[in-house]
Design goal:
By secondary structure, this protein is an all-alpha fold. It has two domains: 1-44 and 229-264, no CATH class; 71-227, MetI-like (MetI-like fold). Helices cover 77% and strands 0% of the residues. The chain is built from 13 helices and no strands. 24% of the residues are buried.
Length: 264
């Protein structure tokens, strides 16, 4: 059996493990009662429809999507520049600086949130969208950096030399020579960064302003305060379904398995 086939089996196996909890609670979203019960009573799809009619849920979803995109874009750009620096430059303290760059991945998130909360209070960024965006950048850039660094390190610099010898400037060299080699890594870094930002609860819970909740925080609050209604598992199932569709589309379009297997 070829290596890519083994990778596919592994990825699909992990996806099944992740989706099993969602699939277990799916019947709860089909109950006709206004509260969660298992086994479900009757059968209805109205809770899925009410997810789109809930203005608060829709507003939090838009806010989460906006935050994820605004975080993933600059995060990937910063991580890309940092990857070129660490991959091609040798300087004193390089390993220490790389460890510092990856620090947010190992520091307990609640401690990081507390430090940011104190810092934001001193500079007037408390409960502002900009502060929340910067906080998400802090925790997502290391994921993008770790994804892009192997990609940048594997570039054949001789192709860039050849392009420059033939008269290409740095801009043409980047978009015509470098970008085709790293585009899959950039897409993967963008997706990972977006997911980390979209799913984050702790930072959004402590740093978002009143009335500016993200979707995960809104769902968490409803679970804690308002109780679990069938609408909650319906939202979770829809999000999981979007994730599966996105994975399939990305694989058919860019070849995620081929990228993970080390192919070109």
């Amino acid at each position: 059996m070829r290596r890519p086939n083994l990778l596919k089996i592994y990825v699909y196996g992990m996806f099944v493990i992740v989706l099993v909890p969602i699939l277990i609670v799916l019947p709860v979203a089909l109950t006709t009662t206004r509260y969660m019960t298992f086994p479900p009573v009757g059968f209805t799809l109205k809770w899925f429809g009410e997810c789109f009619q809930d203005e608060i849920l829709f507003a939090t979803l838009v806010r989460s999507l906006r935050l994820g995109v605004l975080c993933a874009g600059p995060g990937v750009i910063i991580a890309l520049f940092a990857s070129f620096v660490f991959a091609r430059k040798n300087f004193r303290g390089k390993n220490l600086l790389e460890s510092f760059f990856m620090g947010p991945r190992v520091i307990p998130l609640i401690i990081l949130v507390l430090g940011l909360l104190i810092f934001y209070h001193s500079i007037g960024l408390t409960e502002r969208f900009l502060g929340l965006l910067l906080s998400h950048l802090v925790i997502t850039i290391p994921f993008a950096f770790r994804t892009l660094l192997p990609t940048v390190s594997s570039l054949d610099i001789r192709l860039e030399w050849a392009a420059k010898i033939l008269g290409a400037n740095w801009l043409i060299t980047f978009f015509k020579v470098i970008m085709p080699q790293i585009k899959t890594g950039i897409i993967a870094a963008f997706v990972f960064t977006f997911i980390v930002s979209f799913n984050n609860v702790t930072m959004a819970l402590f740093l978002s302003a009143p009335g500016q909740r993200t979707l995960p925080v809104e769902l968490f609050t409803r679970l804690q305060v308002g109780g679990i209604t069938p609408k909650t598992p319906a939202v979770c199932f829809l999000l999981a379904l979007v994730g599966v569709v996105l994975l399939i589309v990305l694989d058919k379009t860019f070849g995620i398995y081929k990228y993970l297997a080390g192919g070109e």
